[in-house]
């Protein structure tokens, strides 16, 4: 399994001090958090994509390219690439470029986002959100897999004899996850192509997540990519830790109560009971996270949201130390126990390249035969 963190890049006042970081401070903080993630032994850093205040990550490739130059092992991902409002041609070229710069340490999570006004800002109609996601991704796959593309669709001008540059590193496109909280159409899309399915898993109860993941697994098998258990699943999560659980609750409560998304809604106690949010000791985080396997099966990627709601950078870095030193080593060991041998590893460039070479050899053998 891969373990990592994802950020939404919100610029939120610290409710305990009233101070709001500048955009520059928040951007620099995300870089520091990514560097700390590699330092403590995590596998993945993922950034969202937003084009409206109070969020700053409007250019994921710029942020990830900078982080790539300062890291060695960290897989650099998006936690949302807006497949609906970004031009597929630009996505193909931007992320292939990043893939070369990062020596293959790149993958993407396609999503529609949760901000309605972004559609008209980029010349699109939110009522076409699902159709945009389906058509744009179909074109993106062709741009990465075909050297010359002729294409015509509903939402952009036609392409004739077009080649996106640079070509994917080693001829292997970045691995794609499809992220969705509530849309079975997106789970279906992931299953159809044999891509990964990522469930955000921070707002919804376990039974909802179970239904979405089971639907994706069944459709993955339906399309002939393998057994349901071999489908590629990722989950989000949300934690805040202190050595003593009472201290964690007391410290996190004002941030929870004033968070932009769920503040002034359910109580912290209700939210932790009804969703995957864990506020407590490292052992409580371990136990709650291990329970995800009960309804999602053996899965490949676990990402945690840790730097939101105005939490100071110092606090987030302390959280990452605990995550890397006390939580993830135990999770790696426990998730490995009883894991069937035919459940695939999390896809990486090296694994995808090896698979591509094997397919080429097998195809050559068939031609000779």
TrEMBL record:
Residues 1-295 form the Luciferase-like domain. Keywords: Monooxygenase, Oxidoreductase. One of its GO terms (molecular function) is oxidoreductase activity. It is an enzyme of class 1 (oxidoreductase). Pfam families: Bac_luciferase. It comes from the Bacteria. Gene3D superfamilies: Luciferase-like domain. Its EC number is 1.-.-.-. InterPro entries: Bact_Lucif_Oxidored, LLM_FMN-dep_put, Luciferase-like_dom, Luciferase-like_sf. This is LLM class flavin-dependent oxidoreductase.
């Amino acid at each position: 399994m891969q373990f990592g963190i994802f950020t939404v890049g919100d610029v939120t006042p610290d409710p305990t001090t009233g101070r709001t970081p500048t955009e520059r401070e928040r951007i620099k903080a995300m870089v520091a958090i990514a560097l700390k993630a590699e330092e403590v032994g995590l596998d993945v850093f993922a950034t969202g994509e937003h084009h409206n205040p109070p969020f700053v990550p409007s250019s994921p490739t710029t942020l990830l390219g900078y982080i790539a130059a300062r890291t060695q092992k960290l897989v650099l991902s998006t936690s949302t690439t807006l497949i609906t409002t970004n031009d597929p041609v630009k996505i193909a070229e931007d992320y292939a470029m990043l893939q070369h710069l990062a020596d293959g340490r790149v993958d993407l999570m396609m999503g529609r986002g949760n901000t309605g006004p972004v559609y008209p800002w980029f010349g699109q109609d939110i009522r076409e959100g699902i159709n945009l996601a389906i058509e744009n991704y179909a074109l993106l796959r062709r741009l990465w897999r075909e050297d010359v593309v002729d294409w015509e669709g509903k939402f952009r001008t036609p392409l004739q004899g077009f080649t996106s540059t640079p070509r994917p590193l080693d001829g292997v496109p970045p691995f794609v996850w499809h992220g969705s909280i509530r849309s079975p159409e997106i789970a279906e899309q992931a299953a159809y192509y044999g891509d990964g399915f990522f469930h955000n898993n921070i707002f919804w109860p376990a039974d909802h997540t179970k239904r979405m993941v089971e639907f994706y697994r069944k459709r993955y098998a339906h399309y002939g990519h393998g057994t349901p258990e071999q489908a590629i699943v990722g989950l989000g999560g949300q934690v805040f830790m202190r050595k003593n659980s009472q201290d964690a609750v007391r410290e996190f409560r004002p941030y929870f109560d004033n968070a932009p998304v769920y503040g002034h809604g359910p109580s912290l106690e209700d939210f932790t009971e009804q969703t995957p949010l864990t506020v407590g000791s490292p052992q409580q985080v371990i136990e709650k996270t291990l329970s995800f396997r009960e309804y999602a099966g053996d899965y490949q990627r676990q990402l945690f949201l840790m730097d939101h709601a105005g939490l100071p950078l110092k606090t987030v870095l302390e959280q990452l130390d605990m995550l890397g030193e006390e939580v993830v080593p135990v999770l790696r060991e426990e998730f490995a126990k009883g894991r069937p041998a035919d459940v695939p590893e999390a896809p990486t460039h090296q694994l995808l390249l090896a698979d591509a070479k094997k397919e080429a050899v097998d195809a050559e053998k068939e031609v000779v035969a």
